[in-house]
Design goal:
This protein has 428 residues and is an alpha/beta fold. It has three domains: 112 residues, Gyrase A, domain 2, CATH 3.30.1360.120; 127 residues, tRNA modification GTPase MnmE domain 2 (Four Helix Bundle (Hemerythrin (Met), subunit A), Up-down Bundle); 141 residues, 3-Layer(aba) Sandwich (Rossmann fold). The chain has 14 helices and eleven strands. A hairpin with a 5-residue loop joins strand 3 and strand 4. Helix 4 packs antiparallel against helix 5, helix 6 packs antiparallel against helix 13 and helix 7 runs antiparallel to helix 12. The longest helix has 30 residues. 38% of the residues are buried.
């Protein structure tokens, strides 16, 4: 296998830059730059020199001996000064050594997967952790990266293997009298797994929302102050405001961290009947985005005038409280009245929803668990038909086991790997 190298820290000027190597020639390459005598596992402060003896930089050299490393291979990291010139000089020197090449995006993590240092769900958790912008996203990604989904899948797999083995034992000894009825234990094992899977499948949508972000649409009639409210919530002039009705024609999106949750606020066109073709397109888009949003904030005095059904979790506030003298349920983007209460309401509704989130975070996870559930449901149905169909029931259990193995990347995921690792940076 090739020895690969790449900048593992962010591009651009920094106090410290990290360059990572992994593979069978990692130590050799490190000693050519930093001199002999590097420990198999440890750190040394060394001057780095090119093949001609010219000084490149001074930095910390860290060595990790296989298999106790991130990739499971020999790994070396150089921590050097973070100037663009220093980084380029070290990378150029490495590229001139035979047997070394620049890593492809995500290749370090891919080697960790191939060397059984991580499962596929943990790889996805690592990708989510790198992209995490809020505390909720960080916690969710950490749970997946720590292997919690893999541990769940392994427990389910173990229970199903036990259930299948009980059925197969009856099949193997069909000509002899089996001393006990295995059906109650098989049913208990399968029912337990099905209950867990149903809860996880139900929680995927909310978990995915934590990962990708909730959408909150501000809807109301023209000139209700929606854009002014959006600007106050965003803390900047994200939308144009004016005294003229119908200023907003498109959907304005502002992403923000709200109580640790990723939220995209949507400022939509004022809802009314209009003969203006362009404004009509904006209103149609506003209704579409409001229908698909996770939560709507109705900024209006009359809910019936908007033509959008008000749902239980939706929030109703009265606009322009500073002009109308509203005090109880009013908001004002100009004075800030009611803004803190509105933020608390939005974060409260979304935080309550996150309590139903599971460990699984992606549509791929949901589909694998759903496939397992379907197989287990069919297996339970066949089980009720008696021992003559135990072989079919056992095969359904094996189908469910294979679906759970695909969840953590043991089988049937080769077509996913290129897509997943393409989202990683070179040094990961």
């Amino acid at each position: 296998m090739d020895t690969i190298f790449a900048l593992a820290s962010a591009q651009g000027k920094a106090g410290v830059a990290v360059i990572r190597l992994s593979g069978p020639q990692a130590y050799m390459a490190a000693e050519r730059l930093a001199g002999d005598g590097l420990p198999p596992r440890g750190m040394r402060m060394r001057s780095l020199r090119d093949v001609h003896g010219g000084r490149l930089d001074e930095g910390l050299v860290l060595t990790f001996q296989a298999p106790a490393s991130f990739t499971g291979e020999d790994v070396v990291e150089f921590q050097i000064h973070g100037s663009t010139a220093s980084v380029n000089a070290v990378l150029q020197s490495l590229s001139e050594m035979g047997g070394l090449r620049m890593a492809e995006p995500g290749e370090f993590t891919r080697r960790a997967l191939e060397n059984s240092k991580m499962d596929l769900a943990q790889v996805e958790g690592l990708a989510d952790l790198i992209d995490a912008e809020t505390e909720a996203q960080r916690k969710q990604a950490q749970a997946v990266l720590a292997g919690e989904l893999g541990q769940l899948a392994e427990r389910w797999r173990r229970d199903l293997i036990r259930a299948a083995s009980l059925l197969e034992a009856v099949i193997d000894f069909a000509d002899e009298e089996v001393p006990t009825d295995v059906t109650p234990e098989v049913r208990a094992l399968v029912s337990g797994v099905m209950g867990d899977l149903e809860r996880e499948v139900a929680g995927v949508r909310i978990a995915e929302r934590i990962r990708t972000g909730f959408e909150v649409a501000i809807v109301g009639p023209p000139n209700a102050g929606k854009s002014t409210l959006l600007n106050v919530l965003a803390g900047r002039e994200a939308a144009i405001t004016s005294e003229y009705a119908g200023t907003t024609r498109d959907v304005i999106e502002v992403r923000m961290d709200l109580a640790g949750l990723p939220v995209t606020l949507l400022d939509t066109a004022g809802l009314r009947d209009t003969s203006d073709h362009v404004e009509g397109l904006g209103i149609a888009l506003a209704r579409k985005r409001a229908d698909s949003a996770d939560l709507r904030v109705f900024l209006t005095h009359d809910l019936t005038e908007l033509g959008i059904p008000f749902q239980n979790d939706d929030i109703h506030v009265l606009p322009k409280a500073d002009l109308r003298g509203e005090s109880k349920n009013g908001v004002s983007g100009r004075t800030g009245q009611g803004i803190d209460r509105l933020i608390s309401q939005i974060s409260g509704v979304l935080s309550q929803r996150t309590t139903s989130a599971g460990i699984a975070t992606r549509e791929r996870h949901r589909m694998a668990m759903k496939k397992a559930l379907e197989a287990l449901g069919e297996g339970m149905r066949v089980l009720d038909s008696g021992p003559d169909l135990y072989d079919i029931a056992a095969e359904e259990l094996r189908t469910a086991i294979r679906a759970l193995e695909s969840l953590v990347g043991r089988i049937d995921v080769e077509n996913l790997l290129d897509e997943i690792f393409a989202s990683f940076c070179l040094g990961k």
